[in-house]
Amino acid sequence: MKVYPTKSLRNIALMSHQGAGKTSLVEAMLFNTGAINRLGDVQEGSTVADFDEEEIRRGLSLSTALVAVETHDLKLNILDTPGYVDFQGEVKNALRISDLALLVIDVSSGVEVGSELYWSYADEFNLPRAVVINKMDRENIQPDAVLQQLGEIFDARFVRLQLPIMEAGNFAGVVDLLSMKAFIGAESKPQDIPAALADQAEEARFELVEAAAESDDTLLEKYFDTGELTDEEVLQGVIAGVKTQSFVPVMYSAGKANVGVSALVDLLARISPAPDERPVAIKGEQNGEEIELPAADGGPLVVYVFKTTADPFVGRLTYFRVVSGTLKADSRYFNHNKGEEERVGSLLVLRGKEQITLDTMHAGDVGAVAKLNHTVTGDTLGDKGKAVTLPELEFPQPIYGVAVTPATQADSAKMGPTLTRLCDEDPTLVWRQDPATREAVLEGMGDVHVDVAIKRAAQLGANLETAIPKVPYKETVTKTFATQYRHKKQSGGAGQFAEVHLRVEPLETGAGFEFANEVFGGAISGSYIPSIEKGIKGVMQTGVIAGYPVVDVKAVVFDGKEHPVDSKDIAFQIAGREVFKLAFKGASPVLLEPIVNIHITVPDSNMGDVIGDLSSRRGQVQGTDSLVGKAIVHATVPLAEVQRYSNDLRSFTQGRGVYTMELSHFQPVPSHIAEEIIAKSQKEEEE
């Protein structure tokens, strides 16, 4: 493969809800441009883009695949992103480094919630967009209804660049409204428009010309004067319209059947912005100030890493975009995020797992490099003296977690480093040690996301077992209570003696812990007061009634006794610990449970199911919003009731529901539920 200059590059991210046919579409693109000699199939696990073992096993894309398509003396860097919303972090990272977002819509399903989510991500980057209505070879389709739905749901103007050709109810090809020619089947050769479509094509062409003219002041003036534009001028107007987002072009295809795909590639090559034509430059930070980074070879070298993968055989593979400057193979560059130098070996152009080496990549190009030591997703490479970084992206909070433990003693040492490595590669994956439950918890965007991470950990040598995490309850008190405790121990040697009088008081939510000393007259020496506090803090970590951390409590030492010989630090630690337990139990203790805010987007027909289900989970609906065909339910619900909500929501919405949630506050657990939790905790402690 030759080295392509900036002007000859096109970076296009394919985004869609799960099952719209992106991977099959990419497969047909490669076949029609001669990169492969047979069409692979997703179900057979033979496509270029879905090459990972887990992707083949599940029959769906789990990560963004980078696929280079050469056509018209251009290189189209196609990013085939996952449609499954568990992997939305992959989509967001891919969109950041793309210059056009191509929304793929299943004509039978229309606009689904995943498509709306990814459209909102494209909004964040102010990214030009186009739409392809795919799977046109299905039966009983209504493409016009999908076009209308697009206009109702998204705040954009949708204009057709093509018309579908239907013969006996079957999708046969497309009419290109730019050239006013027909393209039948997989052929890229133009033909005359079928007579039955002539009038419809003229009407659609008129709408396209109007939209093109309105995108460019010069063209608009000519159109007003003459009432017509040449084909070249219409194309000029379409290119301007895509860049300025004055309208969104719409095309048609059947990827698996390979109908309309050649015409689609031809249009993408013509209307997609080159990196140096990107309407909004990628922004970086230099010396604390925001700067624009135009795609130019002469600019400062800025290489942004948007994805990293761990391979047990190849090692780490780092995916990047040359935002600015020129990248050379076999050179040393500086990681400005880590403050470490990296040696960049061969530059790789990817077609799925196929790796093609280059010695140079120009501004705007997208590729990969193997075996970097320090660089992870989100880092920026460049020249040591010119520190430019890109701001961190914001990702949704994880919504699904598992408690992880090493399967064997040998896996114990590997668990932490392996999980850290996986989380460095995927910013929507988080692992932590929960201080409340003393568990290691791995969190992600859904059960499939986390399950894939566990399998990848095994590939990297750390076999992990999983369980539902314990809910991080907290313990507190609701009234003031005072008591005393005497610790006395006499043995053959020195004895131990300490007596502590303690009062506990409730504090307001979020106040934490306060300790006060009200001892007067030297009943307890000042040197022993810290010992009492230390004993109390030890209890607070492990809990009193159910083994969960104690919060929002004030402990006041107001009296006590000591012995001139037997009193010592350890005696007052023990007395402090035990008197706090007694006082805590007498102060009407309660368990606090985490409450989350949850926002659920589902088809209108499922709103009643969602609200009824939330009620059964002790949830409280705070309000609802309506979009075209969609309902958004806002509610608060105990975390304990929604730890596996993604599975249940997917079940009763047939995979068409999505949700986000974040911690809101803690509140007392209902007494009958608290009794069960306490009894279970005591039983586990006895065992």
Describe this structure in words.
The protein has 687 residues and is an alpha+beta fold. The protein folds into five domains: 6-191 and 247-277, Rossmann fold (3-Layer(aba) Sandwich), CATH 3.40.50; 283-382, Translation factors (Elongation Factor Tu (Ef-tu), domain 3, Beta Barrel); 400-470, Alpha-Beta Plaits (2-Layer Sandwich); 475-587, Ribosomal Protein S5, domain 2, CATH 3.30.230.10; 591-673, 2-Layer Sandwich (Alpha-Beta Plaits). It has a seven-stranded mixed β-sheet, sandwiched between helices. The chain has a six-stranded antiparallel β-sheet with strand order 17-16-22-13-14-21. The protein is elongated.
Keywords:
687 residues, alpha+beta, Rossmann fold, Elongation Factor Tu (Ef-tu), domain 3, Alpha-Beta Plaits, 5 domains, seven-stranded mixed beta sheet, 16 helices, 35 strands, 33% strand
Number of helices: 16
Strand order of the largest sheet: 2-3-1-4-5-10-6
Total strand segments? 35
Q: What is the H level of CATH, i.e. the homologous superfamily of the largest domain?
A: P-loop containing nucleotide triphosphate hydrolases
Mean pLDDT: 92
How many individual domains?
5
Query: What's the CATH class of the largest domain, please?
Result: Alpha Beta
| N-end to C-end Cα span | 65 Å
Structural class: alpha+beta
Helix content: 25-40%
Major β-sheet annotation: 7 strands, mixed
Q: What portion of residues belong to β-strands?
A: 25-35%
The CATH topology annotation of the largest domain reads as Rossmann fold
Uncertain segments:
none
The global form is elongated
CATH architecture of the largest domain: 3-Layer(aba) Sandwich
What is the CA-based Rg, rounded? 31 Å
